[in-house]
Structure formats: structure tokens, C-alpha cells
């Protein structure tokens, strides 16, 4: 079935540390994997995405890796800052739609 | 990126009534999506709305409860019908632009 698992559900780090959030998906036909950041009371914002023809993508302090064989993809945030605190959602494409993971609440302490 | 607006931003409704949420995009888009996000939860797709065809509903969502209109390529509405307190949630519309997904600001619905 259409399923995206996301771990951990909560993650607390000290400012300057790295944070890693992991997701797995079930359909080998999925070919698009975006990550969204949602601050309290705000809409989800796309922060980075990766397509299945690429294994890794980086944008400043944020990177995403994809292992198609294992159906895993991960978000890496380096040098975390308090403003990175939010809920992060991964998603995987199933046909023309996205299925979202359950979310990770990231707390970055000064 | 697509600029998406929604109306109303929030509403408090009585049990048994209906509410229509509007979604406006600043450019023509093929597909629009309606999601529900219950407090502290993830995003659940309700339906996909293409202009000129019937909306496609996900498992657990039916047209009688969540009728959708898509009269043109920039606009869609979602109606939450015969509401109960369990319908209290945030409803978000979404679309794609340049192969990337964008969300509207959401409509926070409280049903008493």
C-alpha cells in the first residue's frame, strides 16, 4: 500500500549540532521525494526535494540523500540554529499525488 | 513558485451545517489537491481536483461529505458538509508549479 514511515517523531539537538531525519517508502515506482518544514500555525514550506535519478542533493546547510534500493531517504541539517525548530515532513510520490510521513518535531536549543 | 490564497482563514461552525472553502492560485495549474491536517498530525490527502473532470477521492473520503468544484484552472472549492466536531481540522489546498508542490495558508475549522 501507499505508506511513508518517518523517524524520529521528535528530535532535540543543541545549536550547532547536526540533525538527521529518516523516511522509508513502500512503492518502488515512487520517483519524487520532497521535504517540507512547517512552523507553528503556518503552511508547510518546501525546503528541498530529490528525484530518483539523483542520490544526493545539497542546498547550503540542508542535504537530502536517497537510497532507491533500500527505499530510504534522509534529511540532513548541519550547524542547526534555533530558527530550524519546526515540524518536518517527508513525502513520496505515488502516481500524481504525494503521501506524507508522520512528521518530526525538531527542537534546536541555544 | 505558485501563490495560493484560501478563504476563510478560520471559522467556527455549528454541528450539521456546511462550510465552503475557497482556494485561488495566481497562475493556471492542472491539478489542485485538498488536504486535511488534524491537530498535531500529518497531512492527509482528501481528493485531487482536475479542471473539467470529477475529483478523485482518497480512501475514507466521499463526495457527499466533501464535494469539490474546479470551475477553472486557477480556482477550486471544498465543501465540508453536515459537519460534526470530528471535522474540526485545518484544511489546505495545494498545487504544483515547476514540478514542485506548494500549499495555501490553510483554513482552520472548529465545529461545535
The number of E-state strands of chain B comes to 11
Shape call of chain A: globular
Cα-atom radius of gyration of chain A: 13 Å
Radius of gyration of chain B: 13 Å
Class derived from helix and strand content of chain A: mainly beta
Concise structural overview:
The complex is a heterodimer of chains A (110) and B (112). Chain A is 0% helix and 59% strand.
Plain-language structure description:
The complex is a heterodimer of chains A (110) and B (112). With 110 residues, chain A is an all-beta fold. In chain A, 0% of the residues lie in helices and 59% in strands. Chain A has strands spanning 4-7, 10-14, 19-25, 32-38, 45-51, 56-59, 62-67, 72-77, 86-94, 97-100, 104-109. In chain A, the strands form two sheets. In chain A, strands 2, 4, 5, 9, 10 and 11 form a six-stranded mixed sheet that branches. In chain A, strands 1-3-8-7-6 form a five-stranded antiparallel sheet, with no helix packed on it. In chain A, a hairpin with a 2-residue loop joins β9 and β10. Chain A is globular. Chain B is mostly beta strands and 112 residues long. Chain B has strands at 4-7, 10-13, 19-25, 31-37, 44-50, 56-57, 68-72, 75-80, 89-97, 100-103, 107-111. In chain B, the strands form two sheets. In chain B, strands 2, 4, 5, 6, 9, 10 and 11 form a seven-stranded mixed sheet that branches. A four-stranded antiparallel sheet of chain B has the order 1-3-8-7, with no helix packed on it. Chain B is globular and about 40 Å long. The mean pLDDT of chain B is 95. The A-B interface holds A 32, 34, 36, 42-46, 49, 89, 91, 96-103 and B 31, 33, 41-45, 48, 92, 99-106.
